[in-house]
């Protein structure tokens, strides 16, 4: 599903590499936490998977494709098989809940009939049935994140990338979001989630990958957030 | 679905940058109107030049039957074939002469028809009313006077005309105006292109949230760029439409009505509607494609895909 072979990333005009010689593999259907302090390279790690950045050294394979060899015009097609969720939700404020979710299908050219069928389905799945016509501004943070997850999941991606999805939410709401992500994981979707939330990581007991100053320092099945924290 | 989605995005974009869109429309309209105007000016000049203008320097018009009655220079009657032969051999012998072409009255009628085909004067004219002439090309165009002194007043010659002196001053003026129009047009074109680039930059920035999300969910770069390019194309097309209107209205008020030059200068043959209409598709095509191209290149810089 994801394979990093000796991956390093140096941003232009920066001496210290953001990632150094990282090698790891994520199998189909796994749930992986990516932990580490700010600046440890988590975001770079995710951006490489999304091919927002290219590696300086080494290879990244996602869904069986070598991203270095993937031509630019094929990148959108690759991203359609990925879902993404962010700390700041990234919803369109002038569109309703249903329109926000439908947007992800419109821009890849799904038919109106398909959209009409799949949007209510996915909104039910994330627990927002009946709130189709609300505007994002009228929803709580947790509900907005559910909309974002619905949008990420509506095209049934094989891989879901979540960058601190609970970063802006209170602990109780965060638990709800985690349950939802766990449910999505159980449908067979691989989930990679960067987080700072110690409680969540400790409770879920999933695989934990820890980065420190760009190096992979821990890769632990059924791990916890960290020993020293 | 796709088309409707793209169209609504364009509408939103154009309204959001209404002032900028307006500026683009106006500058495209002005530059294209000047472009069309200078094309028409060129047409006008070539219409006025007629058949012989670029080919010869001096024309020797010979008396015909009509002239014999009305023109003092032709008091001795219409030109005879001996006189014609004499004039031709004299011309050939002169060292300044490069080439002599004889134009019969039938040919003169044909050329007149070509130039003034749609003027009311042409329909009342018959071939035998036309003058025969010798059209002379000189080795040195300045030596016109040599021909004039040799043939002016000779029997059978109605007049000797320096072909260029008649219209040259006017053509110089028109030519100057034309260059001025082209310079202003180029300037306006640069302004229009810069405005388009700036508009694209602003609207790419104000829509970075949408485009960012589109990128994340895997929209193709064409799909992300299309609304911006179409926006520029629509604004350009509106501008081109305004330019076309300006050309049509301009011809109407300068030639037919208002200034009514066709009445005041009824000896000059003016360009017809067909000349104006034939320029419009070109103006529209440029108005559509140029802003679209400008937007496309601006997007490569300002919109990450």
TrEMBL record, chain A:
Gene3D superfamilies, per database record: P-loop containing nucleotide triphosphate hydrolases
Domain ABC transporter: 2-228
Molecular-function annotations in GO: ATP binding; ATP hydrolysis activity; transmembrane transporter activity
Membrane topology listed for this record: Peripheral membrane protein
Cell compartments where the protein resides: Cell membrane
Claim: Nucleotide-binding is one of the keywords in the record: yes
Major subcellular location class: membrane
Gene Ontology cellular component terms for the protein in this record: plasma membrane
Record InterPro entries: AAA+_ATPase, ABC_transporter-like_ATP-bd, ABC_transporter-like_CS, ABC_transpr_LolD-like, Cell_div_FtsE, P-loop_NTPase
Keywords: ATP-binding, Cell cycle, Cell division, Cell membrane, Membrane, Nucleotide-binding
Any GO BP annotation: cell division
Record family assignment: Belongs to the ABC transporter superfamily.
Record text on subunit structure and interactions: Homodimer. Forms a membrane-associated complex with FtsX.
Function, in words: Part of the ABC transporter FtsEX involved in cellular division. Has ATPase activity.
Protein name: Cell division ATP-binding protein FtsE
Organism per entry: Streptomyces albus (strain ATCC 21838 / DSM 41398 / FERM P-419 / JCM 4703 / NBRC 107858)
Gene encoding the protein: ftsE
Automatic annotation (TrEMBL), chain B:
Function: Part of the ABC transporter FtsEX involved in cellular division.
Name of the protein in question: Cell division protein FtsX
Transmembrane segments: 21-41, 179-201, 222-255, 275-299
Keyword terms, alphabetized: Cell cycle, Cell division, Cell membrane, Membrane, Transmembrane, Transmembrane helix
Subcellular location(s) per record: Cell membrane
Topology class, membrane: Multi-pass membrane protein
Stated family: Belongs to the ABC-4 integral membrane protein family. FtsX subfamily.
Superkingdom of the source species: Bacteria
Subunit and interaction comment: Forms a membrane-associated complex with FtsE.
Main location: membrane
Keyword presence, Cell division: yes
InterPro entries, per the entry: ABC3_permease_C, FtsX, FtsX_actino, FtsX_ECD
Tagged with keyword Transmembrane helix: yes
PANTHER family: CELL DIVISION PROTEIN FTSX
UniProt xrefs under Pfam families: FtsX (PF02687), FtsX_ECD (PF18075)
Organism from which the protein derives: Streptomyces physcomitrii
